[in-house]
């Protein structure tokens, strides 16, 4: 029996301690939580500039396989590792999920979709270019707009505020649930659950 292709879940962020708490790194937070939930640890992949953790969602031979990815290339080159790993694991584009911060959505809200524009997000732009398609899935974690006249680039490269951090753990948990919901039941069902709140 041929094994079903795994799901490639690409948490977008920047490597290095100076970026660890940034809004732009929320994709890493969610990937870390998914790894923790399934009891696996990240390690450097031999075929891509990325930390990778392989796991299953649930138990048994039929449980969907997950390949969790944190590119180590910096955000604007995230597509290279994503494309290399999609080829290595033979993942069809409809089983690739990018998990990322989103300025156009209020803080903490989630929006799930397939395809569409990149909204100025360098990680998505790089993924679309490297995968030669925009038709991958997105789990968009709202970080809201910067206050006043703060430059959006500075805003996403700053840490969550003290007020935001109070809820962050709960919101990251919910985003990880949304990723699992897509894998288990498909996009439409996940949208119904996570777009209502």
From TrEMBL:
<dbReference type="GO" id="GO:0072344">
    <property type="term" value="P:rescue of stalled ribosome"/>
</dbReference>
<keyword id="KW-0820">tRNA-binding</keyword>
<feature type="binding site">
    <location>
        <position position="74"/>
    </location>
    <ligand>
        <name>tRNA</name>
    </ligand>
</feature>
<feature type="site" description="Discriminates between blocked and unblocked aminoacyl-tRNA">
    <location>
        <position position="14"/>
    </location>
</feature>
<dbReference type="GO" id="GO:0005737">
    <property type="term" value="C:cytoplasm"/>
</dbReference>
<comment type="subunit">
    <text>Monomer.</text>
</comment>
<dbReference type="GO" id="GO:0006515">
    <property type="term" value="P:protein quality control for misfolded or incompletely synthesized proteins"/>
</dbReference>
<feature type="binding site">
    <location>
        <position position="76"/>
    </location>
    <ligand>
        <name>tRNA</name>
    </ligand>
</feature>
<feature type="site" description="Stabilizes the basic form of H active site to accept a proton">
    <location>
        <position position="101"/>
    </location>
</feature>
<keyword id="KW-0694">RNA-binding</keyword>
<feature type="active site" description="Proton acceptor">
    <location>
        <position position="24"/>
    </location>
</feature>
<feature type="binding site">
    <location>
        <position position="122"/>
    </location>
    <ligand>
        <name>tRNA</name>
    </ligand>
</feature>
<comment type="function">
    <text>Hydrolyzes ribosome-free peptidyl-tRNAs (with 1 or more amino acids incorporated), which drop off the ribosome during protein synthesis, or as a result of ribosome stalling.</text>
</comment>
<dbReference type="Pfam" id="PF01195">
    <property type="entry name" value="Pept_tRNA_hydro"/>
</dbReference>
<comment type="function">
    <text>Catalyzes the release of premature peptidyl moieties from peptidyl-tRNA molecules trapped in stalled 50S ribosomal subunits, and thus maintains levels of free tRNAs and 50S ribosomes.</text>
</comment>
<dbReference type="GO" id="GO:0004045">
    <property type="term" value="F:peptidyl-tRNA hydrolase activity"/>
</dbReference>
<keyword id="KW-0378">Hydrolase</keyword>
<keyword id="KW-0963">Cytoplasm</keyword>
<comment type="similarity">
    <text>Belongs to the PTH family.</text>
</comment>
<dbReference type="InterPro" id="IPR018171">
    <property type="entry name" value="Pept_tRNA_hydro_CS"/>
</dbReference>
<dbReference type="InterPro" id="IPR001328">
    <property type="entry name" value="Pept_tRNA_hydro"/>
</dbReference>
<dbReference type="GO" id="GO:0000049">
    <property type="term" value="F:tRNA binding"/>
</dbReference>
<feature type="binding site">
    <location>
        <position position="19"/>
    </location>
    <ligand>
        <name>tRNA</name>
    </ligand>
</feature>
<protein>
    <recommendedName>
        <fullName>Peptidyl-tRNA hydrolase</fullName>
        <ecNumber>3.1.1.29</ecNumber>
    </recommendedName>
</protein>
<dbReference type="InterPro" id="IPR036416">
    <property type="entry name" value="Pept_tRNA_hydro_sf"/>
</dbReference>
């Amino acid at each position: 029996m041929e094994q079903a292709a795994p799901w490639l879940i690409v948490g977008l962020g920047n490597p290095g301690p100076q970026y660890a708490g940034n809004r732009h790194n929320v994709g890493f937070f969610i990937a870390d939580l998914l790894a923790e939930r399934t009891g696996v640890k990240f390690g450097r992949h031999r075929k891509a500039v990325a930390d990778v953790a392989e796991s299953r969602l649930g138990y048994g031979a039929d449980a969907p396989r997950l390949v969790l990815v944190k590119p180590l290339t910096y955000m604007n080159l995230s597509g290279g590792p994503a494309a290399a790993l999609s080829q290595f694991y033979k993942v069809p584009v409809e089983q690739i999920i990018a998990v990322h911060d989103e300025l156009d959505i209020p803080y903490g809200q989630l929006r799930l979709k397939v395809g569409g524009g990149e909204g100025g997000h360098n990680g998505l732009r790089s993924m679309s270019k490297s995968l030669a398609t925009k038709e991958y899935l997105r789990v968009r974690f709202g970080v809201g707009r910067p206050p006043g006249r703060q430059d959006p680039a500075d805003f996403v490269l700053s840490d969550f505020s003290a007020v935001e951090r109070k809820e962050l753990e709960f919101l990251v948990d919910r985003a990880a649930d949304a990723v699992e919901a897509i894998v288990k039941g498909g996009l439409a069902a996940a949208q119904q659950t996570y777009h209502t709140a």
